[in-house]
Amino acid sequence: xxxxxxxxxxxxxxxxxxxxxxxxxxxPQELIDKAFRRAGKAVVKTRAHLRGKPRAFVVKKxxxxxxxxxxxxxxxxxxxxxxxxxxxxSLHPFHYELVDLLVGVDKYKKALGAIAWAVKALRTVxxxxxxETRRTxxxxxxxxxxKAAYGRYSxxxxxxxxxxxxxxxxxxxLRQLPNIRVDIPSVVIAGYPNVGKTSLLxxxxxxxxxIAPYPFTTKxxxxxxxxxxxxxxQIIDTPGLLDRPLSKRNPIERQAICAxxxxxxxxxxxxxxxxxxxxxxxxxxxxxxxxRELLGSATIIPIANKIDLVGEEALTPIKELDxxxxxxxxxxGVSKVRxxxxxxxxxxxxxxxxx
Length: 355
Known about the structure:
single chain
């Protein structure tokens, strides 16, 4: 087995936040003004082209075109939002959980539903008012039909104004979701602060980890990739998440942690038997038990770090856990950790992102 830990062969196409393409959400009044402005400009060529034709004929064609163009501008902008905003059923459970945490899945679904309704309603108005325009007999009736169309268009957009504003206010949060791959096995590193998690991540991947924002953490999470033969593994360090007792977490923080359960195929829990991290072994064992219970079906492998600083007797309190002894600072024992990662994840099929 060839271990290419220093070679970063990440498929960048897979490293994506599903909301990264969500562009600026239009303001309702600005969208209305834009649509009517575009409609007014669009008929300039039509008037020129129809110069010399009977006035009633020209007015009818021009006003009908305004109705169509205004509809197209409004509809195109709303459809763009629907294309860029992922459907909930297409999200991986990890992203679904974070959407629920940050914006609420019910509110998100309601907002998209309202926009989809508006697209259909706008089309109905266009069809009805263009037919009405064609049936008009006087200029007053033509102008009245166009005015009615504009009024109905405006009412529809204003009706979904709250939903557009909601998405606009949450867009920044959604675009900051971490770029985590869901198509390869993920290994999460846990343990108290200063036990050597980041050093182990760097040793495993052979490169400096990328830092990605994560809800309710100030440091974000650190992500690296390990290539072993033709297979890739995602290694994640979670500062501020899996590094202190769950009893000290509020419900929102717990939900942010639970989201990780959806991607954690394997957990490396790091002990510091030297206790230079500042936490006694008893506290480290308590955290280990809590995380083991939290992560359910995910396999958790204990690791005893900093063996270059202690003798074998320091491992006695955690001997029953059969930890892998390593030194993340010197690299001793890290190859064994790589072998365990490969062994425990070899039967995990490659997952395709839902869509």
